[in-house]
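Thread amino acids onto this structure.
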């Protein structure tokens, strides 16, 4: 089974895993007899790394689906459509209300979702006893309760998004570690095979083709920065793509096939 994913780095990841699988397949069809214990151990290590990478890839993809843009949209809508009009309408009428000045402040446009949600909850709590004022301002009797509900939902979604990003980051790191471990096993296996094949150039060429990472198909997607320049999502992505390109040019299995 393979884990799903449409990003360029996930495709690179899958092509590298396929190369690892091809190496194990080659050794099954062309065994080295008697098989040295160290070679047996490297084969088991490579198989374990493949299985581990697949599990981590599935975790990574699940976290990506949870880390969507809906939280930012809901944060913007709550701030723009509710908090700004509410503050401008009601705040000037709260004459010397204890805590009014500090509570009735709209968070900055770049404030995170949890901050916006907490601000909305504080405003609703402050204004709940002001039923007559809210009614005079044209707000329904259920408006503040609905505002509280929306704020709590946003806070929950924000916490889930943070957790998903942390899970995704850990999976990405663990995948990188596992790829490096697998690549070391491949290096050792390569030494055994080359020693076994000796000067048989045809057999050596077949072996090298068997363990080669497949070429990337199609043109790589480019993301545009605000200045109109192509840019990756993060410095880590940039470094990983650079590693992947180098490995693709050399045609060898490397530890660079991971996603961010």
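Threaded sequence (260 positions):
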């Amino acid at each position: 089974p393979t884990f799903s994913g449409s990003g360029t780095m996930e495709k690179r990841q899958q092509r590298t895993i396929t190369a690892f699988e091809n190496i194990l397949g080659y050794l099954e069809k062309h065994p080295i007899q008697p098989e040295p214990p160290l070679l047996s151990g490297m084969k088991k290590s490579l198989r374990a790394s493949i299985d581990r990478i697949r599990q981590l890839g599935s975790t990574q993809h699940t976290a990506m689906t949870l880390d969507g843009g809906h939280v930012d949209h809901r944060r913007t809508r709550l701030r723009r459509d509710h908090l700004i009009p509410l503050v401008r309408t009601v705040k000037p009428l709260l004459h010397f209300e204890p805590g009014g000045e500090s509570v009735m402040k709209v968070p900055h446009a770049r404030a995170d979702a949890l901050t916006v949600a907490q601000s909305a909850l504080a405003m609703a709590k402050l204004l709940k006893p002001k039923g007559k004022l809210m009614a005079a301002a044209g707000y329904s009797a259920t408006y503040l309760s609905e505002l509280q509900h929306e704020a709590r939902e946003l806070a929950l979604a924000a916490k889930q998004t943070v957790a998903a990003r942390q899970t995704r980051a850990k999976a990405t790191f663990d995948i990188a570690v596992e790829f490096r471990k697998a690549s070391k096993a491949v290096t050792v296996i390569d030494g055994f095979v080359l020693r076994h094949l000796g000067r048989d150039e045809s057999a050596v060429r077949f072996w090298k083709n068997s363990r080669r990472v497949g070429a990337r198909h199609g043109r790589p997607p480019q993301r545009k920065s605000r200045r109109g320049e192509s840019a990756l999502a993060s410095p880590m992505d940039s470094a990983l793509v650079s590693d992947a390109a180098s490995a693709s040019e050399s045609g060898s299995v490397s530890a660079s096939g991971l996603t961010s």
